[in-house]
């Protein structure tokens, strides 16, 4: 595969992931085997994945912009759900989405600091 095309493929896969999450959030009916607490777990997992996907697909975009973009996406989902009779707006969903992003960024910061320590100590 051509290395020049790889960033374009990552961005395309990010857009596809966002579309799938939006579709799942707006579709009528629920995901099978999902209860109230499992729903929040799905929000956490989805936004952990989306945050990681954003970081890989858009490495030159500052982290703060990525976080604001994903929180805006979470808010957009909830606002669109207000328009649907089978869905409802939930601040708890947005909070779960934010937790997912914090999990990714916490892991990312930990890995980056470990890499820095590893590099630092190998130079001495």
TrEMBL record:
It comes from the Bacteria. Coiled coil: none annotated. The keyword Cell membrane does not apply. Keywords: Membrane, Transmembrane, Transmembrane helix. The chain crosses the membrane at residues 7-26, 41-58, 65-86, 98-117. PANTHER family: DOMAIN PROTEIN, PUTATIVE (AFU_ORTHOLOGUE AFUA_3G10980)-RELATED (PTHR28008:SF1). This is Teicoplanin resistance protein VanZ.
């Amino acid at each position: 595969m051509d290395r020049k095309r790889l960033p374009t493929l990552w961005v395309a896969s990010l857009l596809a992931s966002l579309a799938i999450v939006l579709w799942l959030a707006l579709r009528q009916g629920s995901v099978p085997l999902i209860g109230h607490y499992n729903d929040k777990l799905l929000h956490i997992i989805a936004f952990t994945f989306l945050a990681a996907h954003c970081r890989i697909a858009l490495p030159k975009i500052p982290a703060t912009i990525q976080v604001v973009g994903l929180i805006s996406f979470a808010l957009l989902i909830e606002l669109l759900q207000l328009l649907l009779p089978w869905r409802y707006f939930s601040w708890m969903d947005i909070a779960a989405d934010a937790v997912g992003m914090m999990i990714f960024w916490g892991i990312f910061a930990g890995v980056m600091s470990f890499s820095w320590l590893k590099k630092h100590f190998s130079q001495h």
